[in-house]
Amino acid sequence: MHAWLCTEPTGVEQLAWTELPTPTPGAGEVLVEIRAASLNFPDLLMVQNKYQIKPPLPFVPGAEWAGVVQAVGEGVEGLRPGQSVACLSGTGGFATHACAPAARCMPLPEGFPHVDAAAFIMTYATSHHALIDRGALEAGETVLILGAAGGVGTAAIQIAKAAGARVIAAASSREKCELCLRLGADAVIDYSQEDLRGALKALTEGKGPDVVYDPVGGDLAEPAFRSIAWRGRYLVVGFAAGPIPSLPLNLPLLKGASLVGVFWGEFAKREPKANAAMMAQLARWYGEGKVKPAIDRTMPMSQLPAAFERMGSRAVMGKLVLVN
């Protein structure tokens, strides 16, 4: 097998395409031939030593991938060789093969392509947990999605629409806003050209959004929170802009609003039954055509450094997927 090996987490330039022994699955594990692996922002942070999870060195990055089971370890039930799966293992995906815990592999129904499957679990689970569980989004409410043309943002648009909400998508260019409209957003804000607070006031007739979905952080957080509706819920999803914002705590008080943390990975560990039910609903929605990953492009696995460069420049709209 071959894999992109990180021996020093000092940047993408330290990754090397390396021949390694093909592993044998241990108890509770499966060996998968990887067909597709998607890029997520934590993958980039991990090879830069900027992510909260720091794998022991050396490691193969790539949190999310899909492929075909080649072998199963002792005690594995419900998975068999030849079966297609999607897996969120945290590492290991930027390779030709990987071993992963069977519990982290989702069997794929017929008609679920590997490219879509590799771009599905992390973004859709994060966005569903954020909007439906943590945000208690209801039909008829208005949700503002920041960074709406990114991986989690595009998933959030579709999930919010499936829940019957009105979606205001905010992104950093006209091209990205056009993508959001194609995905079902009811209105868009190009915050590179428009004042966020002024645009929200006009679009909501002064009421503000009921829910703010924020995977961006940075300078957008405070104006977005100042615009939130009475009893609004502000979902802290991530900090793709880099800086972690500091919000004045009088803002939640004045709006009777909630500042809500979203940590899907921990939710999945602590509440596995609820997480499994959520994933089953998302799989049904995919089959019904309610959700479908927005694929920016596919690139050969050999072009991982170029793919990371595209992600780092904020050029990716939706998900970028590497294929073997």
From TrEMBL:
GO terms for molecular function: oxidoreductase activity; zinc ion binding. It comes from Melaminivora alkalimesophila. This is NADPH:quinone reductase-like Zn-dependent oxidoreductase. Coiled coil: none annotated. SUPFAM superfamilies: GroES-like, NAD(P)-binding Rossmann-fold domains. Gene3D superfamilies: Medium-chain alcohol dehydrogenases, catalytic domain (3.90.180.10), NAD(P)-binding Rossmann-like Domain (3.40.50.720). Residues 11-322 form the Enoyl reductase (ER) domain. InterPro entries: ADH-like_C, ADH-like_N, ER, GroES-like_sf, NAD(P)-bd_dom_sf, Quin_OxRdtase/zeta-crystal_CS, Zn-ADH-like_protein.
